[in-house]
Design goal:
The protein is mostly helical and 106 residues long. It has one domain. 80% of the residues lie in helices and 0% in strands. It has 3 helices and no strands. It has helices at 11-39, 43-76, 84-105. The radius of gyration is 17 Å and the shape is elongated. The protein starts with 10 loop residues before the first helix and ends with a helix.
């Protein structure tokens, strides 16, 4: 990998850190939802929050790959493809919303 700085603002680093913070917040929320669901004996919310937890973990893994991919493409001047972490994070947050609805209706 080429370590040459192509952007003085280091935009890929800022973007990766922002997605990482969002994924970590989603993980903490999923863990809290799982604990709350177990306390209220809501198996459905525990299962849904577990899916959100898995999606958030996948987001962090995908972020690492995406960051390296972005750096390689930016240093070579090639365009960057579609954004994968956004889809995973959106799915995770949607799952957390469903778990919250299940808990509220319980």
């Amino acid at each position: 990998m080429n370590d040459r700085v192509w952007d003085t603002g280091l935009q890929p680093e800022r973007t990766a850190l922002a997605w990482q913070r969002t994924a970590l917040a989603s993980i903490v929320t999923a863990l809290g939802t799982i604990r709350l669901g177990m306390h209220h004996s809501s198996i459905a919310s525990v299962v849904i929050a577990s899916v959100a937890l898995a999606l958030s973990a996948a987001t962090i893994i995908r972020l690492r790959v995406r960051y390296r991919h972005s750096v390689d493409h930016l240093t070579s001047g090639r365009p960057i493809g579609p954004l994968g972490p956004a889809l995973l994070t959106s799915a995770s947050i949607a799952a957390l919303g469903c778990a919250a609805i299940v808990l509220l209706l319980r």
